[in-house]
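dude i think i finally got it to work??
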Amino acid sequence: MSAHGSHEARVHEAIAAATTRQVPGTVQAAAIGGIVWGLGALGYGLSQETYRSWTLGGVIVAIVMGFGVAQGGVLFSSIQTAIQGRWGRPLKRVAESFGLALPVLYVLYVAFLLLGIKVFPWHPHTITGEPVALAPHAPTVFHAKEWWLDPTVFTIRHIVVLGAFVLLDLVYLRASLKPDLIAAAQAGGTVPGWWRWITGGETDVAKAAAASAHTQKRLAPVIAFCYALVMSMVAFDLIMSLDPWWVSNMFGGWIFMSTLWMTLNFLGAFTLIGRDWLGLGSWVTTSTTHDLGRFILALCMFWAYTLYAQILPIYYTDVPEETGFLMVRLMLPQWNPLSKIVAILCFVAPFTILLSRGLKKMRWPFVAVNLLILFGLFLERSLLVLPSVWFGDTVPWAMLFAINLGLVAGTFGIVVLIAVRALSRMPALPVTDAFLETHPWDQHVHGLDGHGAHGHGAH
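look at this
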């Protein structure tokens, strides 16, 4: 038994809170404000012929980041399921709430596929100049790019593959939510109508929990595999094909792993900012944030490792198809400052800061690091995309923050709005999950700093 009461009492508390919790006005206003900013940025950018390709490049960044965070939330949940992890169980439902935004983001993705792919240089009617020839440079080479990057094939491939993946995610999320919503409904109070779409009228909590655990266990490795495959496709098609003759086999892995890293930071900031509203004070403890911080630190190092590992062979082989993409971003004077800022914000600063064990246990400093990394990843994704759609001698910095950051704020606003609305009407914890309770043999190692395994972080 912890200082905050028994496991059963705290679970009952989480169920009861689900029927009375209201969305904070400031959070809802911020999310809606981000969406309005995104719509305004999109409308203004597309109305300016000079900035049309720049804006569509920003749309690509926003899609990759917004869809990646929503999908990463489902991946985080499936990781906890697959490894039977206990440390991240208090974060599982919050992460899953991001995945509830996937249908909306999928619709936006499809809208881009139907209306915006003229920004790609291989499109016959590209808006970035003359179409890039996709025929291979030697007659003995297989003609693959001409088929793979055909606009019709490209659009259908993404609609079908991502649509199937979103359906798989929703099956997983329904299985995870079902027993919790049945338990919450039996606790009394007004039940939202949409709960019945998930519960299907079932009332046996134990039976539903057993079926849920079985389904999640079977789907977790499938989701992990599909995540790696689909997010690699997104990386190759939406980013790499902006320079269709650039080659980097590690690029897909670099993008999907850094997308998980981005999700962990978004999850950390979202959970700690809303911890009191969600009633997670006795669950998301200093040990939880310490473990999450170590995960984030590990992926920070992995980001740097995979970046170095793909740059090194490009450097020593000096193949023109490989070096051009990097030379533009690292050597041209208009883009070189941004590449240095990205290196600092995505590795030097977070690596140095997260070496501190104490900081990972402090609420607001940890949130600040999360937001710093998220901003760094926004600049990193922008650096990958924008030089391939903007060929001016200078970077329009004002447009980067007015248009591109606005587009990302819009997609993140959608995720936040849907997540907080869902979490306001359902338990913020997986209350029927057998792995929510700390195992009696578990021992969280900590220093002589007054923070126990069940203590709160500094406010």
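The chain has one domain: 15-136+148-423.
im so relieved honestly
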